[in-house]
Each structure stands twice: as structure tokens, then as C-alpha cells.
Amino acid sequence: MLFRHETSLSKMKGMEEEVLAKFQIIKEQHDAEVVHLTEALKEKNRECKRLRSSFDTLKELNEYLKKQLNEVNDENRKMEIQAKRVQARLDNLQRKYEFMTIQRLKGNSHAAHEIKSLKQEKVPVSKTCKHSTMTSTLRRLGEDIFKGVVTKAIQDNSSEHSMENKPKTAAFFRSSNLPLRFLSTLIVLKTVTQADYLAQAFDSLCLDLKTDEGKVLFLEYQAVPVILNHLRISSKGLLSNVIDSLLQMTVESKSLQPFLEACSNNLFFRTCSVLLRTPKLDLQILEKLSIILQKLSKIKSNKKFFELFTIHLMLQEIQRTTHPEHAFLCINLNSTLFNLGLTKYNSLASNGSH
């Protein structure tokens, strides 16, 4: 009887130890979960603070841009008023000059002809002033977008925001937000003329176009005309970057066909035609351009553009004079001419265009 009692006690002790061990494991798991959730909560709080800070910055930036826009509109109105005054004064002086000329030319058989020519020489001062003012304003706006805009500090007495009460630079061109950065890059390319700014803008554009989202934004913002404005020999230092940005859009993706359709117009082919007429065009530029033209030649309706701007004739001449060792260029030229129905075979064209 005593033995059975001891056995029962021993079993109960073993069960107690097992229960305590399981309880300890559950307690450790619970503590670990509490720590994990605490960290997650802290991270959420930090994210909320960052979002609130970003929202405040964007709000201030919006107010700044509104103010700047109002100032530009006011300046434009003042310039219009000033231009009208100048035009009125010019018209008055013109009338006085005509009257004096008429008095001087009385009795001259050529007077009527001279008076008529005088009336045709009035200068459209207002249009010139408006265009100059707008160009200057857009250039300043583009430079602000490139450099960023310093916003005022947020007035907050709480200790947790004490580090956030410093002036901030609102990033546009250098923003981590892709749509904002992409649009800012296009504005810089559209408005700025400084070569170093443009070079950095094209570098940023080429990097963004390596992503599918960047390609979609390129089409959404209708960027082709902006890029074509720099696809000219006068932009020699930028020409390679300009071609590279277009070349990124020819990589196989969902955006390829819409991009080719966006290039299927007079503006694109006219620009290419002018570039191809450049004497001794750089071989790498020519090779990259041949890739784009080869893909465009696959669209049958584009044949009329090749013929309208005599690009097919220039490609035939380039093919005739290109050394055989430049196999990549020869293959692309041959493939393009084949797609246009100007050659009988298409040797390895598909390999050469990728």
C-alpha cells in the first residue's frame, strides 16, 4: 500500500514538472510575442510620425507653390499692362511719324506706297514681352524643381517634434517618390537649358525607365515630344543619354507597343531624318537609333513616314557605306529595309535587334 502511494506521488511529481515546463514554454512564447508586438507597435508609431511629417511638408509645399503661382500671375498681369502701355505709346508715335511723313511727302507720286509700307511695319511688342517673361518664369520654375525648395519650419512645442522643427528642403527631382520624381525630371527637361542639369535629368530618367512603373509613367505623361526636343546634333553632349532613354522603352514589356505607337508620327520621323543627315554621325548613336527604327519598321503603317522623310533612302546609303565589321548595325539596317519591302531577305535580323 505504501509502495503504491509512493508510486502515485512520484507520478504526480512528474506531471507537475511537465506542467511547469509547458507553462514555462508558453510563458516564454507569450513574452516573445509581447516583445514582437511592442516593436511592431513602435514601428507603426514611427511610420505614422513620418507620414504626418510628410503630409505637413507637402501641405506647406502646396501653399508655397500656390503663392508662387499667384506671384507669377501678378507679374504676368503687370507685364501685360506694361506691354499694352508700350504698344499704345508706340502706336501714338507711329501715327505722329506717319503724319509728319505725309506732310513731307505731299505732292510725291510715291507717297501712297510709302505710307502703306509704314503701316505694315508696326512691331508686336506685347507678344514679344509676354513670350520672354513666360520663358524666364518657366526656366526659374525648372531650376527650383531641380534644386528643391526650402520650406519653413513647422511650429510645434512638443518634445517629440523638436527635431522636426527645422527648415526642410522639399525634394522634387530628387524625391524618393517615383511619380513625383519622374514628372519633375520631365519638367526640368522641358524648361531648363543648363547642360549639367539636363545631363543629371537624363541619368535619372534612364534609371527610372529600367522599371515597369517608369515606362508606364513615360507613356502616361506623354514624354516622347519632350525627349525629341533634345534629339539633335546641337545637344551633342547629351545625345547618347537622349538615345539611351528612348532605347530603354524598346525593351520587351507591356509598354513597348504603346511606345512605338507614340513614336509613329511626323515629329518623331522628322527628328530622326534631321539627325541621320548629320555628317559622320557617331557609330554608337547610329546603332542605337537603328534599333528603334527597326522596331518601328515592323508597323506597316509607318512605311509612309520612312518614305515621306526619305529615311529609307538614307538607310540604304548607310547600309552601302558601312564596313562589314560593324555587323550589329548591318543586321539592323538589313532587317529595317526588309520590313519596308526594300530587300529580299532578312538575315539574322531578329538576333540583331535585341
Q: Any overview of this molecule?
A:
Helix 1 (2-105) runs antiparallel to helix 2 (111-119) and helix 8 (239-248) packs parallel to helix 11. Residues 108-112 and 348-354 have low confidence and may be disordered. With 354 residues, the chain is mainly alpha-helical. The chain is built from 15 helices and 2 strands. The N and C termini lie far apart (92 Å). The protein is flat, with a radius of gyration of 35 Å. It comes from Phyllostomus discolor. Keywords: Coiled coil. Residues 27-103 form a coiled coil. This is Coiled-coil domain containing 138.
Note the topology.
Elements: H1 2-105, H2 111-119, H3 125-147, E1 149-151, E2 168-170, H4 178-191, H5 195-208, H6 212-220, H7 224-228, H8 239-248, H9 256-263, H10 266-276, H11 283-296, H12 303-308, H13 311-321, H14 327-339, H15 349-352
Antiparallel strand pairs: 1-2
Primary descriptors:
mainly alpha; Leucine-rich Repeat Variant; 2 domains; two-stranded antiparallel sheet; 2 strands; flat; disordered C terminus; Coiled-coil domain containing 138
Quick recap of the structure?
This is Coiled-coil domain containing 138. With 354 residues, this protein is mainly alpha-helical. It has helices spanning 2-105, 111-119, 125-147, 178-191, 195-208, 212-220, 224-228, 239-248, 256-263, 266-276, 283-296, 303-308, 311-321, 327-339, 349-352, and strands spanning 149-151, 168-170.
